[in-house]
From TrEMBL:
Localization of this protein: Cytoplasm
Reactions that this protein is recorded to catalyse: AMP + diphosphate = 5-phospho-alpha-D-ribose 1-diphosphate + adenine
InterPro entries for the chain: Adenine_PRTase (IPR050120), PRTase-like (IPR029057), PRTase_dom (IPR000836)
One Pfam family of this chain: Pribosyltran
Domain Phosphoribosyltransferase, first and last residues per copy: 55-176
Keywords for the protein's UniProt record, in alphabetical order: Cytoplasm, Glycosyltransferase, Purine salvage, Transferase
GO MF term list: adenine phosphoribosyltransferase activity
Protein name: adenine phosphoribosyltransferase
Amino acid sequence: MDLCHVPATQEKGWYLALMAPNIKGPNYAWLDPSRLYCHPQGLQDCVADLLQPFQGDTIDMVAGIDAMGFILGSAAAAVLQKGFLAIRKAGHLCVQTVAQPYTDYSGREKVMEVRTDAISPGLRILLVDQWIETGGTMRAAIQLVERLGGVVAGVAAICIEDSEGGRWIQEHYKCSHCVPPRLQPRFNHHQ
């Protein structure tokens, strides 16, 4: 799809066609949404679709997960006129942090951290990431927010796959994603 083209009919998720398939092998995600972010209407519609289920909810801050969650998270924060908090891979913050180990979608053991002075008890935080495959990364972010006394107001991602971790997150938190139900099986099976 051309980066300037906008289809005449724009059903939810039309912008998913902008994503490019992985050509680099199994250590990478199977789809790359960065082309979607380059398309002004695609990015705008994606963020609107992610935020729609949270209209009327109290959200005090948006947190995005390192690194691609920073793009959607900061865009969502701008639309909501809220602050943005970066949840980082360990070793990138030069302030006091709290850390949480996790296993990412490729099975690698990692550590995520967040600054301790940004989340006060009761602060309602919308967590945003690009993709939830196994749920390990998002679950670590949830644990960080809750350990600091924050409340997870919701979870938003372009896609939440039907994995054990994805189902756990959807059962325990209000969630939003952009994949229409008819396309969800294709995304679950990486087709």
